[in-house]
Amino acid sequence: MAEAQLDIGVDKTLLLVDDDEPFLRRLAKAMEKRGFDVETADSVAGGKAVATARPPAFAVVDLRLEDGNGLDIVETLREKRPDSRIVVLTGYGAIATAVAAVKIGATDYLSKPADATDITNALLATDDELPPPPENPMSADRVRWEHIQRVYELCDRNVSETARRLNMHRRTLQRILAKRSPK
Q1: pLDDT at position 95
Q2: DSSP code string of 54-102
Q3: Do 11 and 57 fall within a single domain?
Q4: How many domains does the chain contain in total?
Q5: Which residues form the Response regulatory domain (predicted)?
Q6: Which of 30-34, 59-63, 143-147, 162-166 has the weakest average pLDDT?
Q7: Residue spans of alpha helices (H) in the chain
Q8: Helices 95-104 & 71-80, crossing angle to 10 degrees?
Q9: CA-based Rg of the chain, rounded to a whole angstrom?
Q10: Are residues 89 and 146 in the same domain?
């Protein structure tokens, strides 16, 4: 398999942190096939423990975990190993969150569902080259929906406050929130 011959470097350690157990197992197996020495964690506490005890050269961290925010793990990794390459994953692709992740020290930011190839490309991309664009980027409708959801969450799920901040009629917002997310 050509993918197994990737030039990862001498230190192949990779920390994967995600609370979606089936996704974590699949990704760990795929990354091992690509030559990484994988260690997994399913919580902020577990991720920080590994980052402190054995700081990896690479990390893939989910943003929203059951016990907190994945950015806490990114901060710990940056303190313990400033040269590590970190990709933040999330099911909630919002520009503000991506900016926060990169400011805190993430190398890249990918929206779920990201496959092992996208993740590997992001981890191994050099600073002067951009990884290739995703095969299936979010539609404009999906980006709009994600933004509305983010503002709604930031307003503690208060429809009236969210509508005011988005400069939108409250009933229009309620109809949007009642629908399923666009593809």
Answers
A1: 64
A2: S--SEEEEESEETTEETHHHHHHHHHH-TT-EEEEEESS--HHHHHHHH
A3: yes
A4: 2
A5: 13-127
A6: 143-147
A7: 21-33, 44-53, 71-80, 95-104, 116-124, 140-154, 159-165, 170-178
A8: 20
A9: 18
A10: no
